[in-house]
Amino acid sequence: MSTKTLPAFRTNTPRTMPRKPAQRQDTVAGHGGFASKLTVNGLLVVGALYMVVPVLWLLFASTKNAADLYGTSAYALGNFALFENIAAVAAQDGGVFFRWMANSILYAGVGAVLGSLISVMAGYAFDKFNFRWKDSLFGFVLVGVLIPNTATVLPMYLLASVVGMTNTIWAVLIPVLCNPFGVYLARVYASSYVPSETLEAARVDGAGPIRSFFALGLPMMMPGYITIALFQFVGVWNNFMLPLVMLQDQQLLPVSVGISIWQGYAVPQPEFVPMVITGSLLSIIPLLVAFIMLQRFWKSGLTTGAVK
């Protein structure tokens, strides 16, 4: 038989061709990423302007007298009268404004330090300890987050009047020590920052629950403590309804209520308007100082590498 030689098949390696659809998808993805970045940055700019523009107006307005305040545009410079306005604020009613500032620092400072410590301790206990009705009690805490503070002012006033605590500093200090949102936030920080293995090792070494909290838990939760303290400081500083209802003595008022009294005087007496604006500018200085001083404590990862 004759054998026929079969033709050999040529195997050519196909050339790599550019994938036009893939390039098109990459182009579309690039345009989508640029659009999303532009949208996010635009929203951030709008939010920044929303918060900065009123402060700029306050800064410009505090440098004007009453005539320039009504006779010039919002961001125009008139006759520089900032120091005259500050002198008028300091001289009004024997310098009561600075007494209001001291009261606000007292209320906000004590509320921030002690209130945040109580919140951190409660959040730590809810996360690390097991006790009866734990979930139910934490549910009550979450309900407290949903209730606005103004809704609790009248019940607290009735309770304070029963024990004779109205028109005292305790009528403002004691209620601000309770912060349900701070407890919730502290539990989140305790779950993220304090490993259970570290506490177990401390327990094996003989440390009790209280020593473990102050020696390990609280230092690890320090960023959360500072965050809660700042929220608490700003909240108490801007608190208006509680001191308005609880206090009648002008010497005990915080600066938020005191400036509102001056604002009521400004309707029949326009010379109070520059004082109200200048006092508002001075009242935000402690908030700026608190944020600048405590900013360095906002650190994350304090427990990185603590547990292997």
List the helices and strands and how they pair.
Layout: H1 20-61, H2 66-71, H3 82-91, H4 96-128, H5 134-146, H6 153-162, H7 170-176, H8 180-193, H9 196-204, H10 209-220, H11 222-237, H12 241-246, H13 255-265, H14 272-283, H15 285-294
Helix pairs in contact: 1-14, 3-14, 4-7, 4-8, 4-11, 4-13, 5-8, 8-11, 9-10, 11-15, 13-14
Task: Give a concise summary.
This protein is mostly helical and 308 residues long.
Question: Explain this structure to me?
Answer:
- The structure is a single chain.
- With 308 residues, the chain is mainly alpha-helical.
- The protein has helices at residues 20-61, 66-71, 82-91, 96-128, 134-146, 153-162, 170-176, 180-193, 196-204, 209-220, 222-237, 241-246, 255-265, 272-283, 285-294.
- The model is unreliable at 1-11 and 300-308 (pLDDT under 50).
Counting DSSP E segments of at least 2 residues, the number of strands comes to 0
**Fraction of residues in helix:** 55-70%
Task: Report the portion of residues in β strands.
Answer: under 5%
Instruction: Name the overall outline.
Output: globular
| Average pLDDT level | 82
Give the SSE order as H and E letters.
Answer: HHHHHHHHHHHHHHH
N→C terminal distance? 78 Å
- Helical stretch tally: 15
Low-pLDDT runs of 5+ residues are 1-11, 300-308
Largest sheet data: none
What Rg, in angstroms, do the CA atoms define? 31 Å
Tell me the structural class: mainly alpha
